[in-house]
Write a structure and sequence with these properties.
This protein has three helices and no strands. The chain is mainly alpha-helical. The longest helix has 21 residues, at 39-59. The radius of gyration is 13 Å and the shape is elongated. The two termini are 16 Å apart. The model has no long low-confidence stretch (mean pLDDT 91). The structure holds zinc ion (ZN).
């Protein structure tokens, strides 16, 4: 069973992961872990969604 592709939280998580990686790939400040004004909310959102996803996976008894 794999229905993660239809899971809104998983989709948001993957989108924000992509946005975060894409931004960092073009931003030296963010690569050096000094989030810029543009990157900061993108990375913050990704971290929040990652936490939410991990937390829910744990609650469901699955490995993240
Ligand atoms: Zn940046």
């Amino acid at each position: 069973m794999n229905n993660r592709r239809d899971d809104p939280l998983f989709i948001a998580y993957m989108r924000s992961f992509e946005a975060s990686v894409t931004h960092a790939g073009a931003c030296l400040d963010c690569q050096e872990e000094r989030p810029c004004a543009v990157g900061d909310p993108i990375h913050t959102e990704f971290t929040a969604l990652q936490d939410a996803w991990t937390e829910r996976a744990r609650a469901e008894g699955k490995k993240p």
